[in-house]
Design brief:
single chain; alpha+beta; 6-stranded mixed sheet; 5-stranded antiparallel sheet; 29% helix
Length: 205
């Protein structure tokens, strides 16, 4: 956690943290075999885009950061009585579109217990490089994707066949992401949760 507590907004995401390998000329069968070999483990994360195969082993800061973001999203939902289901690194794939991806975190909102895709996917860019994740999500039709990078969360909302960057979330209307990221540098997740929850309650009176 000490790494997270130091200047998240100045984090240099050049390739030094996560281990990322991209293989070209891979078939859909190659992708499926890798998923099968890995089994139920959450690492490495595997993505596929039209013949390119990304294998990413996330670093500890990456995993810590994505988990705290998820915790704070859940705090927001609980404080605002929004029904949600966390689905972690759900493997999303479409053979016809030659795409597959595993988000850092993803969520279903509402009471549908058996959806075919999440409403929200969250990606942490701790180390640059790898495949264009938005291009993967675009054909998988995920409604909204958030990217954390260098201390900011950006929102990308699906409009037809493309994503548009928007100033605020639509699937979680009202959440202030600039406020949320202010709590990510706390020394523990529990402290971030307590302080964020307190801030939400003060703001709502």
């Amino acid at each position: 956690m000490r790494m997270l507590a130091e200047h998240l907004d100045e984090h240099d995401d050049t390739p030094v943290g996560d281990k990322i390998v991209v293989l070209h000329g891979a078939t859909w069968a190659d992708y499926q075999r890798l998923l099968e070999m890995r089994g139920e483990s959450s690492s490495p994360r595997i993505a596929y885009l039209e013949g390119a195969l990304e294998i990413m082993t996330p670093s500890r800061p990456h995993e810590t950061l994505k988990s705290i973001i998820g915790c704070l999203v859940e705090v927001y939902c609980l404080e605002n009585e929004i029904e949600f289901t966390p689905v972690g690194s759900w493997t999303l794939e479409n053979k016809e579109e030659a795409r597959g991806v595993e988000p850092d975190e993803c969520y279903v909102f509402g009471t549908d217990t058996d959806p075919d895709k999440p409403d929200l996917a969250i990606e942490v860019v701790w180390t640059s490089g790898g495949l264009d994740k938005l291009d993967i999500y675009r054909k998988l039709r995920v409604r909204e994707v958030w990217f954390w990078r260098r201390g900011r969360l950006t929102v990308h909302v699906l409009r037809g066949e493309t994503y548009e960057e928007r100033p605020a979330s639509e699937v979680l209307a009202g959440i202030d992401l600039a406020e949320l990221v202010q709590y990510l540098d706390r020394p523990t997740a529990s402290q971030a949760i307590r302080e964020y929850r307190s801030g939400l309650r003060k703001r709502h009176g």
